[in-house]
Each structure stands twice: as structure tokens, then as C-alpha cells.
């Protein structure tokens, strides 16, 4: 995969050259070391393995990996939108609370600070915004990362010394988005994927085996969006709710965001989905708008009589005939005795989002060489067992 000299997404860096020749050579070496293999880890139950993935408190899925030499095991958020891996670094101008020690470059023998000619040869600063008041800034460097027991040298990452408004006690983010400094690109792999589940989450990089014998899952093209070049967008064409088929009023490109628990649909599409669910989830009693607003959602039902209703099947249909059968579109708010729809209307000026909750239980595979994504027709247990053979 060719390395480009520009950073993507909302990443602002002073113009600089980040050793393109050595970076390309490093990518080839990494590709050879991966050798079309995969790295796999079952998140729950926890073990003493050096890498693990988890979804604490129902928020973003996390991955534990080692940074530096000797490796400092830290927890990172799994980020399909960000185009840069980054970690909080000492000394901090402002760092957020995190689980475990904050990475200190002075304690690693493999840390290398990068320099940019445009910065006068004194460093290579970066600034990465997640929107709102969430951002990270610092300088670029290279380090050895240990992922699932394998060590990879000279990985470029953001050493964040000024970080704000983010995260769930994590050390940083594992940026998997589209861009020359994203993790898949730096590892030299064309394929990666994952399967989110409440108690067993799987990730892999490399080429997976055929998951269902004698079948090929339908794929949907990755749509590029100049407003967010690092994002993986897929085009939604229709939604079915039980027997009701809903055509999307206009082309709607959804951003796949592993950090977002909820899916955000264009308001017109959302309104039709909501209407169909309310009609088909009777005899559930719809909760008041105040009760829904208290949990930050738009449609909730009183959970007292939820056993008397059978939720209809919901399928999202994408360009290219790729279907995503959604089983986890209702979330129980047990503290408030509510059963809520894990979807919302997108707001003006924001991207519609395909969030993590609707992807639960479905293997998602990114083929970057073919520029397509597939939703595999197997569950997470089958997905994990396939790799364990």
C-alpha cells in the first residue's frame, strides 16, 4: 500500500517529510512479518495474556498493547475513524486520567523523536481534533508496539502532551482510519476486521479464511468523503423493519464509527424507522419524551411489559446488496426500567453514523485493496472459532 505524504482526517501538522523512504521499507518489512496471518484475541473472560480487548461499561471497545522497550502495557481505544495512533506522553502539559502509568519516552530505548524541516528541525508537531472540546496535540515520534505478542518497530505515533475531553481512562487511540499513518497502513496489511460482542470481541489484521464454506459475503464499496478523508463511509439504500420496507429518501452515506455506541440516520429515514418500530412493538408502552431525554435517546419503551413483545427483524441494506441484519438495536436501561432504540436522527451539519451497537454480533471485514467492506453472515463465536482452528 503506497504511503502518501499527507495526513488525513482532522489532523493538522506543519508540512514535513516523515522519512518516506524508510517508512515504505518499514511497511514492506512489516507486511512480510505479518505474512498474510492474523492476530486474534478473545476479550472475555480475561486472562494473563499481554494483549486483550474489552468494552468497559458498554462504551468503546478497548485494546491492550505494549508501547516501547521494555513494553509498557496500556489500554487504547479501537478507533475506525482516526488516522493516527497516539498515546498520552510525559511530561504532560495536560493529560487525562488513565488506567496505569502514562508512557514516558525517557524510559524506552526504542523511542525516536521525528523532525520536520518546516519546524526548523526541532520536532514534528501535530494537532488532532475529535470535534467539540476533544483533541490531542503533541509531536510525532516512532516506537516499538507489541500487539498480541508480536513486536513491530518504527511505528509512527502521536506523543500527546496536551489532551482534553476524551475517553474512558485509556492511554490513547489505535487509529485505524484511512491515511498514511493509520495502523493498517503502517503494518502493511490490506485487510482487517473485528466482531463486537458483549463477552467475546475479536480483532484481526491480515487475510481471514473463508468464514462460510462455498459462499462469498456481499460487499459494499467504501465511499470517500472529502470532508472526512480518513473515514470509512458506506451507502445505505434501504431499511426493513419486519414486513415494512423503507427506501432511503436520498443517498445516505454512513460513517462507520467504532467509538459511537449509537447509529445516527438521516432525519427522514429515522422518522420512518421509528414509526415502523412503534407500530410493530405493541403492546409495549412508549415512554415519555422526558424519560427518553433523561437517557439521551429519542425512543424508549417502558420495560415492565417488554416480555410481551417480540422485536421485529431489522435489516440495513447497502449499495452492492450487502445486508446487515441488526439484532442489537434495543438497549435496556435497567436503572430506569426502559428499553430504548439505539438509533437517533443525525443533526444538521453532522455525519450519519453506523455505530457499534448495531454491529454487535456481526463480523465486519475491511478489504482495503478492493476498497470494500463486508458484513459476514456468521456470529462472533463462529468467527472466533474459524481463526482458532
Q: How would you describe what is shown here?
A:
The chain folds into 2 domains: 11-205, Cathepsin D, subunit A, domain 1 (Beta Barrel), CATH 2.40.70; 219-378, Acid Proteases (Cathepsin D, subunit A, domain 1, Beta Barrel). Mean pLDDT is 79; it is low at 1-59. The chain contains 6 helices and 25 strands. The protein has helices spanning 20-34, 183-187, 267-280, 289-294, 356-359, 380-388, and strands spanning 11-13, 53-54, 62-67, 72-79, 86-88, 112-113, 125-131, 134-147, 150-164, 172-175, 191-195, 202-205, 219-221, 233-241, 244-256, 263-265, 300-302, 314-318, 322-326, 330-333, 338-341, 343-345, 353-354, 364-367, 372-375. The protein is mainly beta. Strand 14 (233-241) and strand 15 form a beta hairpin.
In total, the number of strands is 25
Rg from Cα: 21 Å
Number of helices: 6
CATH class of the largest domain: Mainly Beta
Shape field: globular
| Derived structural class | mainly beta
Q: Describe the strand arrangement of the main beta sheet, using strand numbers.
A: 3-4-10-5-9-8
Return the average pLDDT rounded to an integer. Answer: 79
Sheet with most strands: 6 strands, mixed, barrel
Query: In CATH terms, what is the fold-level topology of the largest domain?
Result: Cathepsin D, subunit A, domain 1
Taking pLDDT < 50 over at least 5 consecutive residues as the criterion, the unreliable ranges are 1-59
CATH architecture of the largest domain: Beta Barrel
Strand content is: 25-35%
N- to C-terminal separation? 29 Å
How many structural domains can be distinguished in the coordinates? 2
Q: What share of the residues lie within helices?
A: 10-25%
Amino acid at each position: 500500500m503506497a504511503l502518501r505524504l499527507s495526513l488525513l482526517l482532522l489532523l493538522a501538522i506543519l508540512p514535513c517529510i516523515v522519512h518516506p523512504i524508510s517508512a515504505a521499507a518499514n511497511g514492506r518489512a512489516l507486511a512480510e512479518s505479518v505474512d498474510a496471518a492474523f492476530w486474534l484475541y478473545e476479550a472475555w473472560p480475561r486472562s494473563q495474556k499481554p494483549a486483550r480487548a474489552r468494552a468497559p461499561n458498554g462504551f468503546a471497545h478497548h485494546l491492550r498493547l505494549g508501547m516501547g522497550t521494555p513494553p509498557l502495557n496500556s489500554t487504547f481505544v479501537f478507533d475506525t475513524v482516526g488516522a493516527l495512533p497516539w498515546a498520552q506522553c510525559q511530561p504532560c502539559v495536560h493529560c487525562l486520567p488513565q488506567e496505569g502509568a502514562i508512557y514516558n519516552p525517557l524510559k524506552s530505548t526504542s523511542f525516536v523523536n521525528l523532525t520536520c524541516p518546516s519546524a526548523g528541525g526541532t520536532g514534528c508537531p501535530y494537532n488532532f481534533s475529535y470535534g467539540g472540546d476533544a483533541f490531542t496535540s503533541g509531536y510525532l515520534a516512532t516506537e516499538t508496539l507489541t500487539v498480541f505478542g508480536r513486536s513491530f518497530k518504527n511505528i509512527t505515533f502521536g506523543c500527546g502532551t496536551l489532551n482534553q475531553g476524551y475517553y474512558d481512562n485509556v492511554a490513547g487511540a489505535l487509529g485505524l482510519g484511512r491515511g498514511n499513518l493509520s495502523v493498517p497502513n503502517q503494518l502493511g496489511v490490506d485487510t482487517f476486521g473485528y466482531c463486537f460482542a458483549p463477552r467475546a470481541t475479536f480483532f484481526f489484521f491480515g487475510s481471514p479464511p473463508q468464514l462460510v464454506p462455498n459462499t462469498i459475503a456481499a460487499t459494499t464499496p467504501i465511499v470517500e468523503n472529502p470532508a472526512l478523508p480518513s473515514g470509512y463511509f458506506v451507502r445505505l439504500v434501504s431499511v426493513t423493519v419486519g414486513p415494512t420496507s423503507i427506501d432511503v429518501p436520498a443517498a445516505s452515506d454512513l460513517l462507520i464509527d467504532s467509538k459511537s455506541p449509537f447509529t445516527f440516520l438521516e432525519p427522514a429515514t429515522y422518522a420512518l424507522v421509528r414509526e415502523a418500530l412503534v407500530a410493530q412493538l405493541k403492546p409495549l408502552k412508549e415512554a415519555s419524551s422526558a424519560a427518553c431525554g433523561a437517557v439521551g435517546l429519542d425512543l424508549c419503551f417502558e420495560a415492565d411489559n417488554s416480555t410481551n413483545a417480540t422485536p421485529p427483524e431489522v435489516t440495513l441494506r447497502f449499495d452492492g446488496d450487502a445486508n446487515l441484519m441488526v439484532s442489537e438495536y434495543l438497549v435496556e436501561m435497567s436503572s430506569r426500567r426502559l428499553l430504548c432504540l439505539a438509533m437517533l436522527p443525525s443533526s444538521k451539519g453532522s455525519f450519519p453514523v453506523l455505530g457499534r451497537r448495531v454491529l454487535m454480533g456481526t463480523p465486519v471485514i475491511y478489504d482495503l485493496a478492493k476498497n470494500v467492506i463486508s458484513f459476514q453472515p456468521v456470529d462472533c463465536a463462529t468467527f472466533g472459532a474459524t481463526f482458532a482452528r
